[in-house]
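Hi R.,

As promised, here are both runs. First protein below:
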Amino acid sequence: MATKKLVFRVHALGRMFERGISIDDVRHVLAAGESIEDYLADLPYPTRLVLGWSRGRPLHVVAADNSPEEETIVVTVYEPAPDLWTPDFRRRKP
């Protein structure tokens, strides 16, 4: 998916700083990654969990599309914990 204008929530920026994740990392994941979960009930916009790889590490980006404003809102970003996710980082472990 080609990214539109990116808007970063304060929470996302704080987590990115803590975790050494750059804006370019997020852009790469959103452009080349795979949506692995959809949260259609989230408000004010449905969100999705995108899995991608950047600089050799897996990243999850939670993002929402505000189509009327042609922007993608980045809610949070993290490196998935291997003990919580399957080896391919696509599904949560039971």
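And here is the second one, sequence first, then its structure tokens:
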Amino acid sequence: MIRFHAGSRTAVCALRYCAFAATVFGVFGCSSTLHLPPAPSPAEIPSLEERVAGDATDLQAAVRLGAAYWNANRLPEAESALIRARTLDPGAPAPAFFLGLTYEEMGRYADARREYTVYLEAAASEALRAAVRDRLVLLARSELESAVRAAVASEAELASTDPVPGTVGLFPFLYTGADPVYQPLSRALAEMLVTDLSQTDRLTVLERLRVQLLLDELALADEGMVEPGTAARAGRILGAGQIVQGRLDAIEEALQVDALVVPVGADREGVGASLSDEDALQRLFDLQLRLALELYAALGIELTPAERERVTRRPTENLQALLAFGEGLEAGDGGRFGAAEAHFARAIELDPQFDEAAERRDEARALDQASRTSTRNLARLDDEDLMTTPSPADFRRHEASLVEMWRYLPNVPGRDLAPEVFGTEGFGISALGRVEFIFQRPP
């Protein structure tokens, strides 16, 4: 480690020199850590373009130019500049971060997720890491929504394509009961059956949210959700060979469930296997298990003993917890992520072993945080990972002023100024290492 002595030509940035250093460092700034301002003004584009044209190895200028293009909504130019910046230092987190922002605004959600994942592999700041992890959850949902819209737009082409027979989609069960307390079972029962039918690799079960997003996109009325023709149409758009749909009713502490397996595809459409069961509400979970096993039989799947044992596992046996879980699903489907988090948290209070509710609570929390943070606000987060090392040209540009600043320090030969300059000004060893890394004279 370099020792900082009076008379040394090593550049030092201390908090008590911030007013002076602000004019010296320009893009570097001066604080307990040194930062690259994450979103340069579009007004800086001409000067940054000149810097990049003059020095193709200037990583900082390349990143800042890409970020400035992004800030000016010149997204194709931002992408090109940031890809060039990545070639200068493939491990630098800043290009990946701004590429993620760029792709997100371009609607290229898969590419944005890839770049944010690359950023997380190199990032050090936990604050921005947490925000980006939340962003990944939101982007996964955005990607799913985009895929559903694209499928609906391509419905005419999909009509002539046979879905894969082993792919199954489950509609939410249409609740026809008079007591609204049990309405949340509509989505909760469908979600639990999705889990049950996923216990074998001989079926591909579409996630419940994908099916719900399609129903919302098509604006299907509740009364139409149980028509076989509606199910067949949705199945073709989803690429599902079978659709499971049905209704449930709660009458005087009894629950009745009717389900229908609708085959989809040329020469296959029509009324499929019809299932019906009834039991006391307090034995809902026994009814669900029987229904799952009957669905397997209707789909032509004979379970192995291991698969059957997995299907019999219950995520919860608390009816009130399941109702709260269903309320969380409904709120989340509607984009009310904060309310969804509260409902899932309530489900966990009622059944602390309800692991699926805990997973959904964390997901809702991430969605709530990310949905309330725009890409512009995300780019304003103060983060040391968005700093890049200045080039030799940067060093030469500021060296004379840095040396001049050094004259303000006490000139006592042999005196180690590191504890005074860094220790008393809130600098730690890690920050000292970064200062050495940034301002050491290039070879």
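A quick note on the second one: The CA atoms of residues 145 and 213 lie 7 Å apart. Let me know what you think.

Best,
J.
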